[in-house]
Amino acid sequence: MLKKIINSSFFLLMGTILSRALMFLINLVAARTLPVSSFGQYMFLRNTISMLDGVLSASVGNNAIKDIGERQGDIGRLKKYVGSLIVLNLAFISLFLAIFLITGDTISKYLFSNSNGQEIIFFLSMVVFSFTILSSLFQKIMIALSKYREMAYISFICAVIILPLSYLMISNYSLNGLFASVAAYFFIDTALRIYYVSRILVVNSIKDYWVDLYITVISILKKSSYLVTTAIVSSLSFWLYRVIILERSGEFSTLANFDVAYQLGVFSLMVTGVTTNVALQMLSNKSAETRKVYRANMIVNLVIAIIFALVITLFSSGLLSLFGESYMEQGHLVFLVAVMTIFATVNSINNKLLISKGLLTRIFTHTCISCLVAILFCFFQNTADYSELIALTFVIHYGMLFVFDSIYIVKNRLTILSDGVNNES
Description:
Strand content: under 5%
Mean pLDDT: 81
């Protein structure tokens, strides 16, 4: 079982490492080149886009991995389902683009009042948003179809093209160049994913089965209702933590300090995210040995998380120096991020287990309570170090989820860790 998880994850892990390493290097160049406040502005907007992407990725996306795997024996049903996912994502993009266009002046003035080329940055951020959503969708489809090798190829091609381009763009065009580089990355990444998926699975024209599409879309929304709501609550909370800190401190540099430390924990979350996605696919299999899959994933991911946490904590000074002298004094934030990644890793595994068992209301309840406690802490806690406050808020968020999920699974282990699906909700 352990060997199967590692083998299944290898190419997906390689592809994810390449793509995340590319974004890490882009962020590193940006942190060294841009003023701290400008880097904070960029990271705030990127996290806003990630929040919106998280709503789909953590809700419809996780169900997509599960449901596509179940439909691979019926090509007709599979095409309809994938077509429905594409429609949902395009509708989501269209809705938020309309909202962004209506409120564009307000957003630009709030985020980029001190930046040149507000209109260009706003346009590029919309491009980044659109192709981030589509890239995430086709990544989920490729994971569900077990096309890990192709994902690694795509990440390699993007890295070869974008890395030198981003360095030149950021060096010469500052914040505008940064957004242009990120927009180019997601555009190329999405185009290549669509190309590979279209070779595997050609989806018919929507007009050929629009009635079936409507039925399937409604089914997806009903099936994902708790996950959608949970994802909205969780993603919105992550964003609110940053908004609260920004309003209380009045400085984007506060967010920049935290996000630089957070970048060091990204690789741990990236690796464990890959293996837990594979675990969801395995747990969703009707013949899955739940206890063995869960135990093997917990061992693998905890070892990875602890090793990464020790490395970034012990070598925090050297790692922070890569981002520039402005961030050298943030070692205490790296330690908090390391603790957060361990909690987040366990939570990710528990989350996939509960999803595979249909215990969606339990996930929703635990998430709501954890988010509420973290928001209250972030809003009312007095401190002189707001960068530390947001780091502690994230630790509390994942720590509460760890406690609630772990207690529930241990108390109900005979039922939850048995083979089959519970379908609580």
